[in-house]
Specification:
Largest sheet: 7 strands, antiparallel
Strand content: 35-45%
Distance between the termini: 40 Å
Low-confidence stretches: 144-163
Shape: flat
Number of domains: 3
Helix content: under 10%
Number of helices: 1
């Protein structure tokens, strides 16, 4: 039987599958890369005697993993609450069919809508009704990748910090990935040291610009400490981090106080062969990204499917999305971009 070669329109990987002579000549959704939402299309048909092969591994991408996509829950005892453990690793859609006997059909079932669907976690949920029912609930997975629908925990306001948002730094260390460009010559370069200008805006409206010198090594306090370079949107970026806690923040009477907003307003011009006095310039879109992580900020807590482009935060665009509070900086999570393929380490 012939072997058909399929290619994904998103991850661009290929897979060889035995030809289906009794059905459609397409497997539709990508079954090559874990988490890929692309679709497979047929590229060629190989000779009958050729044996299909698995696609080669690609650094930074996980191979597709088949998982459970349907769960039937039988509720044999009438209850106003149905507690369902489905172990699907995602947040499924739900259809409910309750037992409602009618004359001539004691096994009759009719579809109804629950009063509420309470998501406990990605493996369990509770259905509530306005009266006790028995019946069945059919749960269908919404995504082939549970990680794409994974809920994240964000800080909540407390009397001590008052912070509401996604914590970007850890012990003051803020991690970024850069791919700087010389605007005059269009030359991309990433030197060992760059200068980065952050402008803080106090609650009174005073602007305090601070220039940080940032090297090409992430801090030991950074969850990205084991990465030197990463690939984001198909380009290589250098991983850097720096401590935002400078005297203007740590002095007994600081210039920058809690709940001050900030923007990244400048970066080295990085002219090839440039000198330390080369002027600071504005960021270009996609030239730098803030890398994210979740508590407790170890190397396994990286968030690799979201980044923040600080060039999108200006005095008129998202001006209050980045802020400082009690030694750490935060972001309104609405400015985070979800990306695919995810951030991954280079193999060089």
């Amino acid at each position: 039987m012939a072997v058909v070669v399929y290619k994904c329109n998103v991850c661009k990987r290929e897979i060889e599958l035995q030809r289906n002579t009794k059905g459609l000549e397409s497997t539709n959704h990508c079954t090559i890369t874990h988490g890929c939402r692309g679709e497979l299309y047929q590229t060629k048909v190989l000779e009958d005697f050729v044996r299909g092969q698995f696609p080669p591994d690609v650094a930074g991408l996980d191979n597709w993993q088949q998982r459970k996509v349907l769960h039937n829950h039988d509720q044999t005892i009438e209850r106003m609450e149905w507690n369902i453990i489905h172990n699907m690793g995602t947040f499924p859609s739900v259809q409910v069919f309750v037992d409602r006997p009618i004359e001539g059909n004691e096994d009759n079932r009719e579809e109804i809508f629950p009063t509420d669907i309470i998501i406990i976690n990605k493996n369990s949920l509770t259905l509530t009704f306005d009266r006790p029912w028995s019946g069945i609930a059919q749960l269908i997975a919404r995504s082939s990748d549970p990680q794409l629908l994974q809920q994240r925990e964000f800080p909540t306001p407390t009397p001590e910090t008052g912070a509401v948002g996604y914590q970007l730094s850890n012990n003051g260390a803020l991690t970024i990935a850069t791919r700087t460009v010389d605007p005059e010559y269009g030359i991309e370069s990433d030197p060992t040291f760059i200068e980065l200008e952050l402008t803080y805006i106090t609650p009174e409206g005073n602007e305090v610009p601070i220039t940080y010198t940032v090297d090409d090594q992430p801090s030991i306090n950074s969850p990205w400490v084991n990465y030197n370079q990463v690939i984001i949107k198909g380009k290589v970026y250098t991983v850097r981090s720096f401590n935002i806690l400078v005297p203007e923040i740590t002095n007994p009477i600081p210039d920058i106080v809690n709940n001050s907003n900030f923007r990244i307003t400048g970066i080295d011009r990085t002219v090839v062969g440039g000198s330390p006095d080369t002027p600071i310039r504005s960021l270009y879109t996609g030239e730098a990204f803030i890398l994210l992580a979740t508590s407790p900020y170890t190397i396994v807590d990286k968030v690799n499917n979201q980044v923040i482009d600080p060039s999108l935060v200006t005095s008129t665009n998202n001006p209050f999305s980045l802020f400082y509070n009690l030694g750490e900086v935060y972001a309104d999570i609405s400015i985070a971009q979800t990306i695919f393929p995810p951030v991954r380490e280079t193999t060089e």
